[in-house]
């Protein structure tokens, strides 16, 4: 089973779920505002994404509205706290497959490659 983490009202997440349905890929959707990822999961995602900087959508309205001192977390603990307070900062959707495959964002070609669809 594939798990897609995102936000219910996110247009990109909606596109991703429609793609999964169109190609018959079974998945579970987790809204990470309702079910916030644990600090351990955030660290795991950051590791797979290439660090916390890569995990965060820095063009989001939420990021731009943060005070400058919050935009430069100096430690893993500060990143985890920031993302627990503002889960919408995580670039979405986050896709985790049972085999451990991880991806962020959505594109038709990216999903075709991730799920082996011709």
Automatic annotation (TrEMBL):
It holds the Pfam family ArsC. It comes from the Bacteria. Belongs to the ArsC family. This is Arsenate reductase. It comes from Pseudoxanthomonas daejeonensis.
